[in-house]
Write a structure and sequence with these properties.
172 residues; alpha+beta
């Protein structure tokens, strides 16, 4: 166990990332700021969190190296790129053969329009979030990529009328 360095805030109880050093208050403030705006400069981040720019840079690098920050992404207006129809598709596989599961999970995320693939428990095996240009394209997508797949036993498609973002995956 390492001894905390002077001036470094202590982690709150219960905040231990898998296989790593616990998150402290500064780490949580950095994460909150970056979730809000990942494009801010290091100087802006330091000012927002109340630390020196060199400390902000060191802490952000540490969060990345520890696997807590896993990347940065651009948010795209799906309507602006011709994909205004979103759907959640529940998928139940015919059998739970490891080879078939592996083939399905390696193929489906690569299909055009797939925003996310969730492996779930309960009545369905997978939940796919897709975005396409029209309801006709959605119908064809399901027919071409799921209904004709011999591994797929059942699908159910739910249209998304509006996506309301949550607060995000921030530590307490």
């Amino acid at each position: 166990m390492t001894t905390p360095s002077p001036g470094r805030p202590q982690p709150a109880a219960g905040h231990h990332p898998p296989g790593g050093e616990p998150l402290d208050e500064v780490d949580r403030r950095i994460l909150a700021a970056l979730v809000e705006d990942a494009r801010m400069t290091n100087k802006q981040l330091a000012e927002m969190v109340g630390i020196a720019p060199s400390t902000a840079l060191m802490r952000t690098r540490s969060l990345s190296e520890r696997g807590i920050i896993t990347g940065y992404e651009a948010k795209v207006d799906l309507s602006a790129v011709g994909r205004s129809v979103q759907a959640l598709i529940s998928v139940r596989l015919r059998a739970h053969d490891r080879d078939q599961i592996d083939a399905f999970t390696s193929r489906v995320p690569q299909l055009p329009g797939v925003l996310a693939t969730f492996h779930t428990s309960g009545a369905v095996d997978y939940l796919l979030h897709i975005a396409v240009g029209s309801t006709e394209e959605l119908r064809d997508w399901v027919l071409d990529h799921l209904t004709t797949d011999p591994v797929v036993g059942h699908t159910e498609t739910t249209l998304v009328f509006e996506q309301i973002p949550g607060r995000g995956p921030l530590p307490d």
